[in-house]
Amino acid sequence: MAYMNTKTTEVVETMSIFNDERNYRTDEIADILRVDRSSVYRWIRDIENPLPAFRTKENGQLRCKGKDLNAYLDKYKVRPEYE
Length: 83
Description:
The chain is α+β, with helices and mostly antiparallel strands. It has a single domain (2-82), classed as Multidrug-efflux Transporter Regulator, Chain: A, Domain 2 (Orthogonal Bundle). Helices cover 33% and strands 18% of the residues. The strands form two sheets. The chain has a three-stranded antiparallel beta sheet. A hairpin with a 6-residue loop joins β1 and β2 (11-13). The longest helix is centred in the last third of the chain and has 10 residues, at 66-75.
């Protein structure tokens, strides 16, 4: 998916950071995005726009699908590769 840079007429192609076919643990997400794990938990608990997550079993680890992570990052225009 592409989006338009509002300051220029340049079209910026989005880049998938996560593999769409894989599920990621919260610590893996935090490491890849270089954020604290508490930030990932906060995104998951967000009332208005939560990051979709599921538990591996009852009281198991939280996981997020790669395709959901890429969609979430694209929605909020998080671009760690430009940091």
